[in-house]
Amino acid sequence: MSTFSQSYPMSGGDDQHSYIHNSTYQKAAMDGVEEKAKQYILEKFDLLTLNPDLSTFRIADFGCSIGPNTFHAIQNIIDAVKLKHLKESQENSLVSSLEFQVFFNDQSNNDFNTLFRTLPTSFEQEYLSVGVPGSFYGRVLPKNSIHIGTTSCTTHWLSGVPEQVFDKKSPAWNKSYIYCNNLIEEVTKAYKDQYTQDMSLFLKARAEELVPGGLMIMLGLYLPDGVAMYETWPGIVKDTMGDCLQEMAKLGITSHEKIEMFSMPLYFPYFSEVKGVIEENESFTIELMETVRHPLEAAELTNDFMISTYRAVMPTFIEKHFGNGKVDELFNRLAKKFSEHPIDFEKCKKQMIYYVVLKRK
Ligand SMILES: C[S@@+](CC[C@H](N)C(=O)[O-])C[C@H]1O[C@@H](n2cnc3c(N)ncnc32)[C@H](O)[C@@H]1O
Predict the structure, then answer these.
(1) How far apart are CA 350 and CA 219, in angstroms?
(2) What is the pLDDT at residue 6?
């Protein structure tokens, strides 16, 4: 049996490796599309029809981690809703005030203490906050309770690793690879099936939690057609991590058996796969579905940046599987390898961003 837990929070606290200081890549993805949500809310979101007596507006961020990106995403939505509310109130000669309540969801072992400790004071006056621990692949909030849900850079984290990738007798055995690098067709299929199943559960749960007319905003990374994960920089980082683990096994710091039972619970879909699973869910209308280049993929990323981005998102499940002290050992080796043989960023194929706004029917 693999020793994966079902949850893999980002690096907590606020030291140099924390997600707080190493989430610029995810933040840049948000920056690339945030105007789109604002515009949609201002032009098309119908607050009055949603609820003429609306006094508490509820927003949820699914897979919020520990900030600061979640605060940014929420503030963006609140600013747009406030403007829209003002406009609708003036047009309809209404005098009403709107209070905001924000639900921050993530796995129960997410560092919620750091999240709430670092909530900017100005935001505390802007909304009332609630922590919601639990997997977003099931219901985490009451039915019909949320007006806008959002999620960014989250659903490539699967609910678990498909069992067959650890089975030497299965055509979907992932050998010594440590993630779905798209080199073995059957492995890719096993991961894709898991992704499709997870995403449909995600959408089913959100459909129950959102009020009719409510919005679900989703931002994620995908692979353009014809691009394999091993050709991208995140793929190269993970394949090189695999090489480092093999070195560690040769030195007796870990074992080949442990590596064979390790495969990351990550799947970066093709856009047609994202679209397919969204279209299959009949509870939403698709208001916006766009793809954009990741702003940072157009620039030259440094090796340090790539390594520290991964150092902030990987530690929990690496430590759980390989044991104490192995995260430092692994990332020190990785840094050394890249200082000797830097990734040629120019030659890497690029991941893209999808941006979707769904309306609950
Ligand atoms: C890369 S971080 C993104 C955080 C934040 N949304 C951002 O854009 O910076 C992915 C987050 O998704 C959370 N996550 C992954 N699977 C989850 C699940 N099944 N339920 C709730 N949260 C999950 C992780 O714990 C992590 O905090």
Answers:
(1) 16
(2) 66
- Which of 106, 311, 317, 355 is the pocket-test mutation for ligand 1 (most atoms within 8 Å of CB)? 106
The residues facing 146 across adjacent strands are 210
Dihedral sign, Cα of residue 321, residue 155, residue 115, residue 21: positive
The owner of tokens 């893999």 is: 8
DSSP state of 9: P
| Separation of alpha carbons 56 and 97, rounded Å | 9
- Give the domains, in start order, of the chain with CATH numbers: 19-360 (3.40.50.150)
Give every residue of the chain whose pLDDT is below 70, as ranges. Answer: 1-6
pTM above 0.90, yes or no: yes
- Among 108, 151, 157, 200, the mutation site with the greatest number of ligand 1 atoms within 8 A of its Cβ is 157
Answer whether 23 contacts ligand 1 (Cβ < 6 A): yes
Burial label for 28, CB within 10 Å (0-12, 13-18, 19+), is middle
Q: What is the pLDDT of residues 303-331, one digit of tens each?
A: 888 888 998 888 888 998 999 889 999 99
Number of the ligand 1 atom closest to the C-alpha atom of 8 = 25
Q: Which of 272, 307, 353 is nearest to 30 (CA)?
A: 353
Pairing of strands 146-152, 56-62: parallel
- CB 211 within 8 Å of CB 202: no
Give the ranges where the chain is alpha helix by DSSP (H). 24-31, 34-44, 47-50, 69-91, 112-117, 121-126, 185-209, 233-250, 256-260, 271-280, 303-313, 315-322, 326-340
Instruction: Write the DSSP assignment of 91-112 as a string of letters.
Output: HTT-----EEEEEEEE-TTS-H
Instruction: Check residue 299 and give its pLDDT.
Output: 75
pLDDT at 125: 84
The residues with which 312 forms a beta bridge, in sequence order, are none
Is any ligand 1 atom within 6 A of the Cβ of residue 22? no
Rg (CA), the chain: 21
